[in-house]
């Protein structure tokens, strides 16, 4: 009896939504179809909910995913190296359809998140990149001081003022256009796997962006050809992959993982290294203080220029329309200008 009433009520409601002239059976059928269409529409507008650990992987995901993805950047302020997810961030991570990380040891928090949430879909953007061992970066810096007698001693000091232990690899993979191309491919494949209906859309975005990355890379490869082996002085050793791409050398005022201020001893060492290498440009982190760079440059009558690690991008840059590619171009152009005395 009760069931019968419910059926009658349901049919009555259906009749209210549909034309009255057709037989009841058709009305039920039509209503079902409408419901399916509605569901399909909802599915079509549903975007992939992505959480990205910091700016470069956020930018790459947005460029490939376009309007099919909603991407949140976890590190919009502060230091990307020291980032740990807050409780709010953890909620975003756990609820995401996809978590995009740089990999190469950059996200020290990711292992514990992974072990607590084994079903989480996490993509390591550097999985196809040849990683540089961080010891090689340190050894390289030692090479810069070959004729320095107290060298053992300051290598110890240096590790200490780096603040914390570095990982096995240099994590700054994104600061190479060649690596960035591999990272774009990784995210393109991942989005296509999650959302095969839009595979062609992701492929088309990838093709357009990859071409721009390659064009910029080729241009600077030609321009750096006559400057092979030259050095540039950067705030921290983030540019190992850029240097490798064009056969250049970076001299880091600070180490791989640090963005603290250098000691006076280190400043003195940098001044000496610059004299030895006949350098007169000191780079400072784009968007941050140029005080340390100016102090060093003043010792040599040199100049300062900005260089971006792209680790954290300010709102000002977003508003100006800057992105990974425009800031990489600024970096490469400024390095080139420093070699050409501009
Ligand atoms: Zn860094």
- Which architecture of the largest domain does the CATH hierarchy give at level 2? 3-Layer(aba) Sandwich
Q: Give the tally of structural domains.
A: 3
Shape: globular
The top-level CATH class of the largest domain is: Alpha Beta
Number of helices: 14
| N-to-C order of helices and strands | HHEHEHEHEHHHHEHEHEHEHH
Q: Give the overall pLDDT as a whole number.
A: 84
Q: Based on helices, strands and strand pairing, what is the structural class? A: alpha/beta
The ligands found in this model are: zinc ion
How many strand segments? 8
Enter the CATH topology name of the largest domain. Answer: Rossmann fold
Which strands sit side by side, in order, in the main sheet? 2-1-3-4
- Give the proportion of residues in helices: 40-55%
Radius of gyration: 27 Å
Low-confidence stretches: 1-39, 144-165
Beta-strand residue fraction: 5-15%
* End-to-end gap: 91 Å
Largest beta-sheet characterization: 4 strands, parallel
Could you describe the 3D structure shown?
The protein contains 14 helices and eight strands. It is α/β, with parallel strands linked by helices and 342 residues long. The protein has a four-stranded parallel sheet with strand order 2-1-3-4, with helices on both faces. The protein has a two-stranded parallel ribbon with strand order 5-6. It has a two-stranded parallel sheet with strand order 7-8. The structure holds zinc ion. The site of zinc ion has 6 residues, from loops.
């Amino acid at each position: 009896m009760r069931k019968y009433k419910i059926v009658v009520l349901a049919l009555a409601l259906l009749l209210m939504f549909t034309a009255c002239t057709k037989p009841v059976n058709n009305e039920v059928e039509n209503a079902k179809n409408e419901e399916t269409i509605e569901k399909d529409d909802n599915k079509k507008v549903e975007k992939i909910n992505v959480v990205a650990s910091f700016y470069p992987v956020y930018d790459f995901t947005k460029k490939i995913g376009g309007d099919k993805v909603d991407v949140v950047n976890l590190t919009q302020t502060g230091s990307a190296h020291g980032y740990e997810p807050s409780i709010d961030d953890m909620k975003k991570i756990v609820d995401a359809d996809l978590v995009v990380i740089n990999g190469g040891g950059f996200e020290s928090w990711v292992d514990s998140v992974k072990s607590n949430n084994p079903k989480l879909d996490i993509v390591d953007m550097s999985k196809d990149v040849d990683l540089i061992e961080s010891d090689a970066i340190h050894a390289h810096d030692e090479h810069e001081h070959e004729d320095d007698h107290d060298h053992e001693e300051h290598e110890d000091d240096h590790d200490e003022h780096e603040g914390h232990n570095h990982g096995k690899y240099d994590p700054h993979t994104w600061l190479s256009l060649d690596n960035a191309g591999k990272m774009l491919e990784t995210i393109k494949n991942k989005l296509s796997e999650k959302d095969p209906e839009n595979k062609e859309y992701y492929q088309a975005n990838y093709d357009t962006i990859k071409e721009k990355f390659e064009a910029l890379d080729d241009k600077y490869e030609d321009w750096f050809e006559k400057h092979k082996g030259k050095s540039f002085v950067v705030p921290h050793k983030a540019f190992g992959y850029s240097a490798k791409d064009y056969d250049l050398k970076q001299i880091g005022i600070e180490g791989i993982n640090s963005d603290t201020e250098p000691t006076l001893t280190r400043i003195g060492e940098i001044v000496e290294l610059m004299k030895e290498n006949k350098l007169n440009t000191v780079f400072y982190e784009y968007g941050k203080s140029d005080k340390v760079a100016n102090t060093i440059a003043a010792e040599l009558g040199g100049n300062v220029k900005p260089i971006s690690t792209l680790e954290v991008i300010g709102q000002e840059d977003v508003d100006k329309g800057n992105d990974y590619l425009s800031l990489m171009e600024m970096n490469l152009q400024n390095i080139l200008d420093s070699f050409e005395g501009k």
